[in-house]
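subagent[fold] <- orchestrator: predict structure for attached chain, return tokens only, no commentary.
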Amino acid sequence: MKISWNINESDIQKVKNVMKENDNFFLKNRRERNVEKNNIEINKNIIILNLMMCLLTSQQRSGPNSVVGKFLSLKPFPVTSELIAESENIESLIKQILQKNGLTRYINKISAFFAENIERIENENWNLISKLEFLNDNQSKETERELADFLNDWLKGFGPKQSRNFLQALGLTKYELPIDSRIASWLNDFGFPVSLTSSPLSDKGYYHFVSDVIQELCLKANVYPCELDAVIFSSFDNDEWTEKNIML
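subagent[fold] -> orchestrator:
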């Protein structure tokens, strides 16, 4: 069974309008990394930073002026592969670093998930790096979704949204996007044919269904889903994003 979506000129114009209204540094940065593939880095410390970002931003505000945003923007970032290698208790280490930086919400869960994920990655001898490099060299709708689904199943505390958030932040995706409450709210206002809430999006099949519609809409509007995600995401932050505070 195949669903046929009727995307009309009014729908396409709505996408073009939101792109024009939010033509900012956040969108520029997203284009440079995810579309033009500039400054792509894949190494242990970049992976660690993005693992932390995904866990911290899962259920709390992460704008540039938030506590989470400021922590993720620290240079140098306090959690490194060297520090982890020297630690006898990674979960305790992460908890201490988060507390020191004023991050106490979900701290036990985040620390536990991070420690378990790092252990899984290290047990696989950081083979994740080769998977990410393969996607960077062989990018398509299919390869993006395949790796996103793998991360969804493999990493603790992720799910469909954060697995795509992880890949997008690394600059490795154009088609698969993290569908969060902002995207759902925008799509509902847009007139999406199914009323969206966050809960069903935890189901992989339902997530694919919604993502397919977004990809089709973006194709007709001649934009990449990662670009639409950037303008919708930044539109909720009241122009707080600037050239200096783009986190990743």
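orchestrator: received. Logging for downstream: The chain has 13 helices and no strands. The chain has a mean pLDDT of 91.
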